[in-house]
Specification:
Blueprint lengths: L1 H19 L4 E10 L6 H11 L9 E7 L2 E4 L5 E3 L8 H4 L13 E5 L3 E9 L1
Parallel strand pairs: 1-2
Antiparallel strand pairs: 1-6, 3-4, 3-5
Helix pairs in contact: 1-2
């Protein structure tokens, strides 16, 4: 369900950016979705495309790059990717993964929580 809500927010942002720039047609929307958002990239791609129908973005290519989670551990200094299994509870509570090297819970998430419009291509 939150895939649709996020898709609405993305489309609102894209259409507003295009309006500000005086675009008459949106040709491509590039998105970055982090795995820790637990959003379905397929669903986001589908719903953004659907929500752009009957707008200047109808038919635009919607490209989603999925970003792997990365952490930096203050305990052991590990910096790199971390694997997080999908659990339905994380869709509501979020998660901060533990360090895969030492197991410390005090890690900084440096990637994987993104949900952003990286760029869009439009014409006037």
């Amino acid at each position: 369900m939150h895939d649709i809500e996020r898709s609405h927010a993305i489309v609102k942002l894209v259409l507003e950016a295009a309006r500000v720039e005086g675009a008459t047609r949106i040709e491509r929307v590039n998105l970055v979705i982090g795995e820790l958002t637990f959003l379905s990239t397929d669903q986001i791609e589908f719903w953004v495309g659907e929500l752009l129908r009957d707008t200047i973005g109808e038919g635009a290519d919607v490209v989603v790059e999925e970003r792997r989670p990365r952490v930096r551990c203050a305990e052991c200094g590990y910096e790199g990717e971390v694997t997080v299994r999908d659990d339905p509870i994380y869709h509501f509570t979020g998660i901060t993964p533990a360090c895969p090297e030492c197991g410390a819970a005090e890690v900084e998430v440096t990637a994987g929580r993104e949900c952003m419009v990286e760029s869009l291509t439009a014409s006037r």
